[in-house]
Amino acid sequence: MKEEKLEHGGRHPEPGGPQKEEKEGLIEFYHSYRELFQFFCSNTTIHGAIRLVCSKHNRMKTAFWAVLWLCTFGMMYWQFGLLFGEYFSYPVSLNINLNSDKLVFPAVTVCTLNPYRYTKIQEDLGELDRITEQMLFDLYKYNSSRSLSNKPRLRRDISNQLPYPLVKIPYPQSFSHHRSGAAGVQENNPQVDKNDWTIGFILCNKNKSDCFYQTYSSGVDAVREWYRFHFINILARLDSQDLNEAALGNFIFACRFNQVSCNQEKYSQFHHPIYGNCYTFNGKNDSNLWMSSTPGINNGLSLTLRTERHDFIPLLSTVTGARVMVHGQDEPAFMDDGGFNLRPGVETSISMRKETLDRLGGNYGDCTKNGSNDVKVQNFYSSKYTQQVCVHSCFQENMIQKCGCAYMSYPKPDNVEFCDYKKHTEWGYCYYKLQDAFSSDSLGCFAKCRKPCLVTNYQLSAGYSRWPSATSQDWVFQMLSIQNNYTISSKSGVAKLNIFFKELNYKTNSESPSVSVALALIVELYLPVVPGMSTHKRHQEKRDIQCPQGKYPHTTNESICCLKCHKGTYLKANCGGPDLAPLCETCEAGTYTEIENYSESCQPCSVCRKEMGQILKKKCTVSSNTVCGCRENQYQQHQGENKGLFRCVNCNPCLNGTIQHPCQEKQDTVCVCNTDFFWYNHKCIHCNECVPEKNCRDSCPLTSVNPKEAGPVLMYLVIFLGFCCLSLIFIVLICHYPRWRSKLYVIGE
After folding, report:
1. Which H/E stretch holds residue 460?
2. How large is the C-alpha radius of gyration of the chain?
3. Which residue from 267, 259, 263 is spatially nearest to 286, judged by alpha carbons?
4. Which of 390, 410, 438, 605 could form a disulfide bond with 396, CB atoms 3.0-4.6 angstroms apart?
5. With the C-alpha atoms ordered 395, 397, 402, 405, is the resulting torsion angle positive or negative?
């Protein structure tokens, strides 16, 4: 008996010594390192380790395996370093997908290219126009027909009326002499070797300590920019609502989308200080956005525009036509940055292709989701974050901080005024300094404004054709003039625009991490290389198959097969060696195990459900579950797909029939109905109640008639026979009518 216990414990008593009974413990301790190495060499599956530490006689083999293991582990950790280095560099992969679906039509903004009708604002611009015409005469000897007097005035009469007069600047020989007269004056623009002078205006700070020339190589650009600078000052003093022309019909003669006319609910209007009245179609305020389900010129937006120029501001609006921009619904229209001009008398067709870019933020890229938290620039636009919105807001923010006023072309806070040199005397000097710093990125706006992670772009392609043609222009002009109550006499007064999707295929570029989880890659790629150290499921299944019936693989050392626990017990601790019994404990009350197992817990016992008529047949034990059943003359009717759930139902007594198969535990009685009875709804019913809905014709003879049906049939039969009798009597009377007629005459005589 002692020998069996000692063998079961895995140790042998020393010869000649007293034999003591050793109990098997939860943790086994060895008496020496030699015994520990013997156990390791006998049970390990790491083949290289066996040859490294368990080779007793061949030192060459031991040295060879030692060098091999050092090289292998060195290469493995080198690969670990490469993987971790690649992971923490956060590389990304670019995924390109080509999708095809119905597309939301983008927003389209069209501007008139004229800020205001000259007749409405001429009174406010009178002084500026007079001074500008005088300067044109002094500089270029141009005598304008709009001059207030035939005789030009001297420059000294007008130099004090408006700040920053337009002057000639000697260049290049005499420029040094000019700079000596004004200390601190610097050239702000590149020099052009065309004449010995350029044109521009001088800008100084408040105390005249710092000045510079804003010069232009083209006189046209210089006059237009100088006029624009003073025009913005005048607009800052006016109420834009008084001059606003929001009527769509004044600019757009016709509008159609998908061959359906546009209504006024499909556009919104805003005013641009330079480009005039602008109309946005299919913008964010539209409740139902336009959808394009078919590409082509006939399935897009078509506009007929009024482009006459006779009421333009002559010194400001030097271009005729219209300004157009395509953008997203929740993006402002930056007409300076992304717009293009339409030429009068031309039909311009713009085809679009949609492209979406989805970047990764965080450690993978320098982009922002919405710009609310990670961009330190206040958004002055009532729209979503874009890089252009941020850049323009950044410039306006610097204008407010450094110049004390807001630039007219950009939105502003409510508590800040637009710049006007009557209130802010040095704002021109401050503005052009900031503009130069902004262009060279000295303000840091482009560094502050991060790219949005999700960007939608529309790639545009343009085509042009003469419209209307020479043969059709007469009737086209006549129709447009009558329809819009406006006389059109030449091609310069009208233009046509078509915008449509070239195809419904759109490209989506999305970024994804190239290395998602480095540790998962290390475990999957490198640990299976070392034999016996893999944690992959297929190795566990393989070990489970290798263990014979009645045994299971050790949870921490899969090379050991332990005996399974008997039914009624569960696994408390694994075995201490191959083919040994684990530590098993008996199931507690209310739990059980029915088979040999190595489960770490017992299953709870079932409870019979009285509400379903179940009764207790056998109580639960540690080795068997509760057995529930039904009373006598009842069977188990299973509920749904759960075969363990059943309801007790009374067995069918087979009234008006005979029992073919008696009632069983899980099956009702099988009955055969007597003659003149049929089976319906688990019982035998007399054929008098047979109706077509009960499918009883096979069991009931055809002669049997339902009393409920006999009444109507008999009534119909009586009516038919009565009708036949009446018809027969009528025919007989008709046949004998001539005889009666002669007798009637005799009686009458």
Report:
1. strand 454-466
2. 50
3. 267
4. 410
5. positive
Q: Which helix (H) or strand (E) is 135 found in, with range? A: helix 118-140
Contact between 115 and 272 under an 8 Å Cβ cutoff? The reply is: yes
Give the list of residues 6+ apart from residue 237 with CB closer than 8 angstroms, or none: 420, 422
The count of domains in the chain is 6
Provide the greatest CA pair distance for the chain.
Answer: 168
Query: H helices within 328-462, ranges in order?
Result: 335-338, 387-403, 427-439, 445-448
Orientation of helix 707-735 relative to helix 737-748, angle to 10°: 50
Q: Which residue type does 106 have?
A: P
Q: Per-residue confidence at 386, pLDDT binned at 50, 70, 90?
A: very high
CATH, residue 483: 2.60.470.10
- The model's confidence at residue 358, banded by pLDDT at 50, 70 and 90, is very high
Q: What would the mean pLDDT of 13-22 be, rounded to a whole number?
A: 47
Contact 231, 419 (CB under 8 A): no
The pLDDT value given to residue 703: 44
Could you tell me if residue 733 is inside a domain?
no
Same domain, 331 and 479: yes
The model carries a pTM of 0.59
- In a domain, residue 433? The reply is yes
452 near 331, Cβ under 8 Å? Answer: no
Q: Determine contact, residues 604/591, Cβ cutoff 8 Å.
A: yes
Buried b (16+ CB within 10 A) or exposed e, 571-585: beebbbbeebebebe
Q: What share of the chain is helix, strand, coil (3-state, %, to 5)?
A: 35, 25, 45
Same domain assignment for residues 579 and 666 = no
Of 179, 209, 244, the residue at which a domain comes to its end is: 244
Q: Using one digit for the tens of pLDDT, what is the confidence trace for 88-119?
A: 888 888 888 888 888 999 999 999 988 887 77
Element (H, E) at 629: strand 627-629
* In a shared domain, residues 418 and 439: yes
pLDDT band at residue 162 under the 50/70/90 scheme: confident
Helix (H), strand (E) at residue 51: helix 47-53
Number of Cβ within 10 Å of residue 90's Cβ equals 14
State which amino acid sits at residue 595: I
Res 699: pLDDT: 72
Among residues 347, 365, 454, the alpha carbon closest in space to that of 92 is found at: 365
Question: Do both 44 and 126 map to the same domain?
Answer: no
Mean per-residue pLDDT over the chain, rounded: 78
Same domain, yes or no: 352 and 459: yes
The residues pairing with 306 across neighbouring beta strands, listed in sequence order, are: 494
266 and 334 assigned to the same domain:
yes
The rounded distance, in Å, linking the Cα atoms of 69 and 55 is 15
**Domain residue limits at 106:** 93-115+246-360+453-513
In a domain? residue 282: yes
Judge whether 58 lies within some domain.
yes
Domain boundary among 575, 604, 633: 604
pLDDT over 60 (residue 742): no
Give the three-state DSSP class for 220. Answer: helix
Whether residue 600 contacts residue 585, with contact meaning beta carbons closer than 8 Å, is answered with: no
* Same domain, yes or no: 422 and 471: no
Q: For the residues of 506-556, what is the DSSP string, one character each?
A: EEEEEEEESSS-HHHHHHHHTGGGSTT----HHHHHHHHHHSPTTEEE-SS
Produce one character per residue of 227-239: b if its CB has 16 or more CB atoms within 10 Å, e if not. Answer: bebbbbbebbeee
Per-residue pLDDT, 749: 45
**What element of type H or E holds 480?**
helix 473-484
Q: Tell me: the pLDDT tens digits for 700-710?
A: 765 444 444 44
Q: What is the pLDDT of residues 419-466, one digit of tens each?
A: 998 888 889 999 999 999 998 888 889 889 999 999 999 999 999 999
Model confidence pLDDT, tens digit, residues 671-701 = 888 887 888 877 888 887 787 666 777 777 6
**Three-state secondary structure call for residue 369:** coil
State the first-to-last Cα distance of the chain, in angstroms, to the nearest integer.
151
**CATH number where 402 lies:** 1.10.287
